[in-house]
């Protein structure tokens, strides 16, 4: 039975049993900041189990994509070398949220396993928690499982909990006896043995208790069920193969990788693990990037980078000397596209992002490996690499520690890991010194307490700023003034927009009304420290702001609000234009909407061309000049998404959402302030487009007044340039600059001609001082400082070789502008069988405090000790 068929059978079976089929959630958990990745089927239902997230269904079934790599699930080094360790895998699950319990869950599991998968009952075993008589009775009396096929285990194996406190309960697992050929051979081998004979593939978790801080467990009013069944494990059982890697889910990728590498895959040989690593890591790479994770040096991105670089390392073992992982990620998309159609939509982005990371790593890999070889050679028989060297590999060359560990293991060596951690902690300490801190944690506690108190009193602030810029209201909470005299106030009704969704908070003023004591204050910022709290930061001008029954007039700065609204609607237009022009892989990755500018971060794999930037501006300005209407309305979230509204990853939405539509082409969920018609934006102009991380680009742009001011400043710069070039008008500047560049090119040619004449004489002088030896001559000298630096040294080498093919050349030069030195070694074609330039350079470079490399006929190095040049030249003379 193929893997895809098992997945389909599972979902259809449980759909017939009244379960709602729920799509796999993202690999990046949206509701659990403690997790790096979604690592089990129940993650997306955690808040449902806790009663925080009511759903319209009580039964659900999923095939959940999961990643376990990093944190306590850091099994990366085992992947590819064991039968069932993976970074990416699929978890089949059926769930009951206070609906059915043990009796039905066991019945469904047994029916599916024995009737749909047709696994022989006599080879199946079940386990229950040691005191769970109820589950044991159901297995025996209801399903007919013999008592000698029912085993009881303790809390370590058969009890599950969500944490130290909270929902928990006993587990029941299904095992299959794979036969004696998988046995460890010990006389004691039986159910519970750690060998491969008895394999668990189905786990039923019965959440029936709530554990408090004292450890006391009380029955839950609505017990629930969480089932987890590994798809890859089930496939290995039904296909009767030895490992998960022998199933169709991996063999297609492995066979195509073998074709690409032109190396046959043989399960038992030394390269088999490399094929398996690439297959597994290609799956993780494709799915993680599809879900918005990009390789980086932090958090999830760092785990992805480790996965990718480990795959690249194993690719080199198969003979790949150029990027290949982007192709194997493509094999994954081909195989999984029916179950996960989003892979097809994002195919181009996934492959380009992988290729870009590969190209970057290939550039550093050779240099890193050369450094590692150099450092291990210095150990002279020692078997442990110093921790600071391993840290340098990590910090400078991007080698994850486990990659260095694997490379060393192949040489029978290890790492001083304590030394590595010491170097790492030193770097962290330095980072902490440079971080000033903000006191945010203690402030959060104040805001949380204020929110809780206001909620209890029914006084949470009401935002009316979508429809009005002024409101009169009383102060329901005051936070003590800070050291600079600012006071933070919460109004019962407020027109002030609190910073959120990338949009900066409003500015304005507050004045007393009616019988309130005289007060006036400037609103310098407005924040939303919790979703239900709007806090205005006020600089008092006169009087004192008081909480209670006194009312105050709040006035939003209309000019700033208007400028901000223009920029916010423009970000929606920019998002639309980017997706139209570059492809649907473009996703918002962050934004800033301020009165003076907008900043928009988005996923894309390469810099935009000038033509693309111009096209974006044309598309957006055309919509502005078309006076496209902007509609804002509230509706149900599902209704909004069904209507095509874009929901942003990581954002939390309630049942009711605000939908902002521009014309009939841009529809997004957004709580920000916007114009009523695109014409109010007036003008859109991009100031810059840059890369801020692998696969993430940033656009800074201006609208309206900001666009005018930006263009005005550019015109002022052009006029300065016009005057400097003595041009009659701005239009003539380009012609004048081209004439200057041509003059510069002509002068450069003249200088190079003169330098060539001088160099010819210099070469003749060097050759006259050359040291002859059997079969050739040695030219070894320190040249005079020259601004051309390394270029001059290479040119001298070429000229000497043209005159004498049997020359061995070693030249050095001090940088005329810095305390640095350059060194080159060149071997003429007549001596390449006797000398290796790179090997000679490795002996000489340390004398100038440097390092370098090259080919057998030419190598170069840079160093920080120019005073060592004479010593390097003298050492070269001793080589012949």
Overview of this protein structure:
The protein contains 24 helices and 32 strands. By secondary structure, the protein is α+β, with helices and mostly antiparallel strands. The strands form seven sheets. Strands 1, 2, 3, 4, 5, 6, 7, 8 and 9 form a nine-stranded mixed sheet that branches. Strands 13-14-18-17-16-19 form a six-stranded antiparallel β-barrel. It has a six-stranded mixed sheet with strand order 27-28-29-30-32-31, sandwiched between helices. Helix 4 (133-142) links the parallel strand 4 (124-129) and strand 5. Mean pLDDT is 89; it is low at 431-443.
Please supply descriptive tags for the structure shown above:
flat; about 900 residues; 32 strands; six-stranded antiparallel beta barrel; alpha+beta
Shape estimate: flat
The N- and C-terminal alpha carbons lie at a distance of: 71 Å
**Low-pLDDT runs:** 431-443
Helical proportion?
A: 25-40%
Helical/strand content category: alpha+beta
Count of runs of 4 or more consecutive helical residues: 24
Radius of gyration: 35 Å
Q: On the 0-100 scale, what is the average pLDDT?
A: 89
Q: Sheet bearing the most strands, described?
A: 9 strands, mixed
Number of strands: 32
Approximately how much beta-strand content do the residues carry? 15-25%
What's a concise summary of this model?
The protein is an alpha+beta fold and 880 residues long. The protein contains 24 helices and 32 strands.
Chain-wise SSE layout:
Elements: H1 3-16, E1 20-21, H2 46-49, E2 59-67, E3 88-96, H3 102-116, E4 124-129, H4 133-142, E5 150-153, H5 155-158, E6 159-161, E7 166-177, E8 198-211, E9 217-230, H6 231-238, H7 248-261, H8 272-290, H9 299-317, H10 325-336, H11 342-345, H12 347-378, E10 384-385, H13 387-397, H14 401-409, E11 414-415, H15 417-434, H16 440-457, E12 462-463, E13 470-479, E14 487-491, E15 493-494, E16 508-512, E17 519-527, E18 535-543, E19 551-556, H17 558-582, E20 588-593, E21 598-603, H18 610-625, E22 630-636, H19 637-642, E23 656-662, E24 666-669, E25 684-693, E26 696-703, H20 704-725, H21 733-768, E27 771-773, E28 776-783, H22 790-803, E29 807-814, E30 821-827, H23 837-844, E31 850-854, E32 858-863, H24 869-877
Parallel strand pairs: 1-2, 4-5, 10-11, 12-15, 28-29
Antiparallel strand pairs: 2-3, 3-9, 4-7, 6-7, 7-8, 8-9, 13-14, 13-19, 14-18, 16-17, 16-19, 17-18, 20-21, 21-26, 22-23, 23-24, 25-26, 27-28, 29-30, 30-32, 31-32
